[in-house]
Each structure stands twice: as structure tokens, then as C-alpha cells.
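## retry 2 of 3
previous attempt timed out at serialization; input unchanged, resubmitting
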Amino acid sequence: MLFQAARRKLSLVIVLALLISSLTPHLVFGESAQLKDIAGSYAQKEIQSLTEAGIISGYEDNTFKPNKAMSRAELAKIIVLSLGLEVSGDETAPFKDVAATSWYRGYVGALVKAGITKGTSASTFSPNSSVTREELVVFFIRAFELDETAKKLPLGSKLSDMSEVSEWAKAQVSLAFNNGFINGVQGIDGTLKFKPKERAERQALARLAYEFKTNKAVYVEKSKQLLAEETDKGKTPVVTPAPTATQAIRDTSVSAPAAPGPGTPASATPVPATPAPAEPTPAPATPAPVEPTPVPANALQIVVKGESTDAIYAEESTEVIFRTTLNAAETVTASVYQVDDSGKVMSQITLLHDDGLEIHGDSLAADGLYSGKAVLTESTEGYINLQTFAGDVPSSAVLKLSVLKHLTDEQLAQTEIIENNTQSKLDQLAASSGNLQKAKEETVAWLQTQDEVEHAGISGEGGSIWYLLDNGILGGISSAPENTKGLSNTVEEAASNNALTALTQDVEQTVATIGSQQVAVVSPFSGTLPSSTVYDAVYQSFEQSNYPFLVERVKDSAAGVNFFKGLNQYGVVVLDSHGDTYYDEIVLQKFHDKYGVDFKYAGPQVMFLTGEKATAENNKTYELDLKKGRLAIISGYYAITPSFITRYNDMLPGTIVYNGSCRSAYNDSMSDAFLNNGASAYYGYTDYVKLAYDQVIAPFVFNALNNENMTTGQAFEAAVAAHGANDGLAAFVMKGSSIGTKTEGVINGTFENGKWTGWNGNGDVRVISKLGPLKPTEGNYMAIISTGLGFENNDKGGYDYNSDSYIEQSFMVPAGATTLSFDYNFISEEPKEFVGTKYNDTFRATVTSSVYINPASLVTSHLNGGPTVTSSVYGQESVIVGKESINESTAYWIDANKVDVNFYGGDDTAYMTNWKHVQFDVSQFAGKGSIVLRFHVWDQGDSVFDTAVLIDNVLLK
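## retry succeeded, writing output
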């Protein structure tokens, strides 16, 4: 028996090897780069990895044929050869479809003789039939040696077509689904299916083979866990029926996590009971202003090709990674569901995992960030409502995932034609009538006769022309009075109906300051807008300050669309551009109804122009934002809308925003977009602002903030007192809180806002709630800086920038401060096998200052609850206040310091120093100048075995 068991185990391995070898028909190994037909395969990465490893290859014509099926005859040969069975054709006589001259006759006969198969009927074997999905799953479960385990577990009921699975395969299919090795396919009826009788493709086999090769232990361990849990229960668990399907919003085909077929590994977590949302609220009939609702910390994020998104394209299969942060129990079952507009659950999309497996899109195991993969395929434009559930409780707001169609070349060309024709029409009518307002009205009337124009209008009295094209693009022509900051080719003085008085709204007297020392002074039209020289002076007021501002001067095309996607790193944003208001409720309603876009403010939208020109090529790049109404094309330039700010600039660090463009505060649409995303104060103008007025207001405000240490409220009042509340056309206004620009002490040293705002840095830097069993020393969050964890990298020119990571912050040490302290825990996979070698990953914490550092300065560090070590630091300007490395910290690489943390790659053992608490005497800097605190981790020798340091509680006392 022992020999037979050993032989069976060996045979299974050989079967797997031969089955994989069936994917290597002709080519030599290692030629993945030449496989010309795998780019569209959902298993492209797996195929390439296995090819590079010499395990699989393709055909003589440099193809892999990922969609090709494998026949039963081919599988018969593999099994017979692997088990060493004697080839015999005598037993095939009953099978009328196995010819005496066929190459596979002997293999089929051997299987019959061994009792392995009885054919597909008493008289047929179906040698040319494709191997089915259920057959392939059964094979792999047996290769895992989990056949007996599968039979001891109850059948799951999440797969709605389990009744269609053959009796001999049900246990194996159920286990493969529950341990995460496979997942189902979700179709238009909203239920999750396995489709057991469909053929198994070569790409599916490649993906399963890759998972078997790289993550076998994970699936085996999960299966053992399922059996142990079942044994502990002592009874068959109650299985929740799959969600009841309702009529779909549109034809939907979803496979989770990556593609149809049993080659799509899925969740290792059981599916929860069908969620029952509490009192669903129907979507509003029309967009309307609403009170800002805080976004949950565990909001659902969707990632496509490494970029966060809220839209996919119709008629394309799109692999999506879903991510959400959960700070619940140690073990939680999380899922993404599709819900209807009332909040009713329609179907499950995928399960979410915190296991660090690439197949689930999870970069770091046990960090509280749950991930899951699915392939979404939509046939029509529209939107899908998605929501995350932890167990059966909603854990995120509903996310509306828009479904868009690509713009055609004809539509892109027509966009430019309409813009040029509209400008020409306006110029012609204005010249002939001499009445600009009348010319605008006649131009709009002309626009409404154009087949490509869906809607057109003018934004208020004296406002600019705008239009909505039938391809979904927003366009417009800026038409502003002379000598103002609007962008216009026509001249006429316009009157304002806004009150010509100073406006301050909701100004709170606080002692708060900005949460980042970074400052951006932005002039998209520095070469043509005369106010640019004045904003140069604003830039200098920051640059010459004794406070350590990190100030950037951004001009012309550098102030493009992508720049404005990163405003959430700045504590101060100063904008010198053209602006105006565009569109009405009808346009907003169309976007809401078609794509599920919600606008926080109903009515004309305040916009400002970037320095990037709209071209056909650029329109393709920004297609998604154009189609969702986040970008508009105004007079040939891209314009930023409030919804653009809302989408791309969450978690602003208490930013002060000075928007010096026309009509920047015409209504609350733009100011609220900033303030609701974390900005503290917003300055703007209620109408077309005259250049002369803005040129005195802007430098006055920032001189008051930077040189006179006023708060935003005080600076506003002083500017109005000195230069008047308005210029006769536009009033200067402020909305938000009264805060200062200069912060003493560390910004966001506890990371309790869930991000590392306030710090500068590069590489692999994250803020997490946990790392396996490790928690923050205080609060809910801590930073982790690493040599590049997970399957994602930051390769540029062949160098992985995540392998060298740091964060740093320059700050003033206030008078009376004596101690800078922080906690850290150094963790690595390199001990013990690489101690004493060149593989010496390193951590350094340093303090740098222009103030002389006394050689007698003391650094005290100790393990939390452990011994204290005090040492002197020596040097001028820069000192090391904390250090670890593989070779320097050998005292910690003992069994007692093993930690249950498994980084992607490397091995499954990690060691840590334990949390250390560091104190550094900073009394010599108090009230004298700034210091720079840097935490730095980098690879030495390799990038396979990873290292990280946890940082928490960076405090001044």
C-alpha cells in the first residue's frame, strides 16, 4: 500500500508535467516574446511566465492558440504515459468512434482496462471532444491530492448551475470554488455559473498550471482549513442561496476574478449571505445640490491597468481589480456586489481577499486592504452600481461605474470642426451686428441646428457660449469683457448682477494651518496673460520665506491636465488662469441619466483652463474624462470642471486655494469641490475680474499670509480694506476656514488620516492599518516604507524605483520643544540565509539641519517595554538617529522574532526587530530653524527578498 501511494503521488506529478507539456507543441523554450497571439489573452502573464521558465511554448507559426481546446484523446495519452500503463487496443472494441487505425486507440484501451474510464457512453469514447471544464478541475484537485478532502466537505450552492455538474465532479468543483482555485462566470441573468460542460481552453490550463506551480501550498492549506472548520462545527454548515437575480440594467457578462473558464482562480473566502441593504434610497430624478457626505474610509476603488478609474469601455473585456480597506475582525468575508438604483442586490461580482496573491490583485497580505479581480464586459453605454459588503453588511457607498464607448476618428475630427465653426460664427455675427450679446444668442441658435450638437446655451447674462455634442464631449467658446481674465476674442463691457460687496462665507476662527509645505503657483498662460509677472512675485514670497516651503512655479503647457490630477499634494495652490461658467441643469441631467454621474451643484459649472491644447491625439488620451464631463474643451484648451477636482484630488491637506480666474466664485460649484475634498480655504471672484484688481489682490493676500503671519480670514479682510471689496464688476470672496500657512512641528506624524500627506517621498510608501499580526503602536494607522512589496513595481528604464524608498519632512521646531520621537519596526525576509552577504537591505533615519548639531546630542532608543540604549551622535548638519540592516542587526534574527508576515516573492519566513521607540534631543533647534527628518529603506544585492520598516507616532514634545 505504501508503495502504491508513493507511486500514485509520483504519477500525479508526472501527469501534471505531461499535461503542461501538451502546451509545448513545437517551439523551443523561452521564446515568449515571439508569441504573437497572447496579447489579448487573460492569461498572458501566466503564459509568458511559464514560457520563460521553459515549461510551455507555442506553435511553429509563433502562436500559442490560447483559445484552442484540448481533446479527450490527447488527455488519454498523457494519463496512460504518466501512469506507465500498458498500451492495449483490445478493450476499445465497444467504442464505435475509436478506429482500429487511430493513434490513440491503445491509450483509450489502456484507460478502459485500468478502470479509469468507461467512455462517454457504452458505445462511444468521444476522442475528439474537448476536455470540459469539470474534467479539468477534477484533474487538478487530484493533482493537489485533495480528492478525499473534497468528498468530506458539503457541496456549496453559490454556483447556480451546480446541478449541471456531473455527480463524479461535484465535490471537486465545489472545493475548487471554495478554496479560491477557480471562480464562476456571471452572465446576463445575474447568477454565478460554472458552465461545467464547456470546453477547457489552453489559456485556462496555463493559468491553472501557473497557480498550481506557484501557489499550491496556499490552496492546500485553505482546503485543510475548510475541512478543519467543518470538523469543528460537527455538522453540515447552513449554505446561503445565491443572490436572487433581478432583471439586469443591461446585458452584462462578468467573469471573476479574471476570465471565463476554470483557469480563472478566484476567492479563497466563502461567499457571504446575500446582503440586504437597509432602506434603499432611489436615485434622484434630477441632480441637485446636496450636503457633502463623508466618503467611507473603506470606499470601493476600481483599478484598471494600474490606474484608479470609475469607468470601463463597452464591448471590451476589461480586467478590473477591486480594492477596499476593512478594519473589521481578523477574519472577514468581503465581496463586491452589483446593486440596482434602489440599492437592491442583483448579483455577486467577486470575492475580496487580503492574501497577497497576484491572482486576486492583492499586493500585500494581511494589511487590511482587500482586493479581488473580475473581468467585466458590457455591451452598451450606461453604468453599473457596485457596492462592497463585509459579511452581509454594506461597507462602502455605492460606486457608479460608467460604461463608455470609444470616440471614433470621425467624432474626434467633428469635435474640432464644430469648435472652429462656432468661433468663426460668433466673430462674424459680432462684427456685423456690433452687439455681442445678440451675436452670442444667434450663435447658440445656429449651434442648435447642427446635427452633432445635442444642446447649447449661454451661462448667465454676459456669459460664454457652451454646447454638448452627441458624442458626449462638452465644448465652449470663452467670451469675456475686455481687460478681464476671461479668454476672449471679442470686446464688450459686461455688467454684473452680483452684489458688489465683500463676501465671506463660513469663516471659522481657528488656529489650524495647512497640512503640506508644498506650494504650487500656476500660470497656464504666462506668455499671454499680463498677471503672470505678479504671480512671479507671489512665488518669490514663498521662495524667500524663512519657513521651509517647497514651492513650484508651473507655467504654460506644464500646467496640463495631468498636473491638476495631483493637487492633493499641495498645502497652497495659487492659480492664475482664464475661467468662466458653463452648462445648465439639462446638460448635467443627461450625464446623470446616461453615465450615472452625480454633480454636487446643479447649475452652471465654474471652470478654469489648463495650459494644454486640445488635439485629436490628446482627446484620445483624455477620452474617459471628456466623456464623463470632467474635462471640457473651451476655445481650444482643456478646462477643469468641479467634478474633475472631486474625482482626482481627494484628501487635500487642508489646502489654501486661491483661484484667480474669472467667475471662480460665481457659485459654489468649484469652491465646494475643493472644500469638500479637504481644502480649508478658497479665494475667488464672483464675476469677470479685471486684471488690475487681481494684480493687487493676489500679492497682497500672500504677503499678509507669509510675511505678516495672518490667517486666511485676516488676510482677506485686510485685502478688502486696502483695495476695495470689488472692482465694479467682480467681488473678491473667501469661503472656508481661517487658517495660517506656517506650521510648526510635524505634519501628520501619526498618519491617522489614512494617508501620508504632509510628507514628501518616493518609491513604495503606504499607510496601512495592520501588517499580519502587527498593529500601529497607537491609533489606527501606520506608515510602511519598503524595498517594493507585492507584484506591482515601478520600473523605469530597467530600474525599479520601488527598491529605494523614503519619506521625509522639513519642519520648524517650535520654541520650547525638547524631544523628537518616533517608533519603528524593521522587518525582512533576508534573515537568516543572507546574513553576512552582499544582500544587506538597509534602513536609516536621519535628521538634517543648517543649524550646527551639537556632538553631545543624545539619541535614546529602546524596544517597547525593553532595555534602553543611549548613544551620542556626532556630526554637523546631518546625523543618523536610527539604523538597521541585515548585517548590522543580527542580534534580532532569532526564532523569537519570527513574524507571521509573508511578502510576495522571496520565501515564507520573515524576522523583525520588534517596535523600537527613538528619542532625539532637538532643543538646540527650537525656535532657530528647520530640520529635515527622513526615513529611508533600500535594497542591496537583490530585489527578490523584501524588506520594510513600519513607522508610527512621529512627535515633537
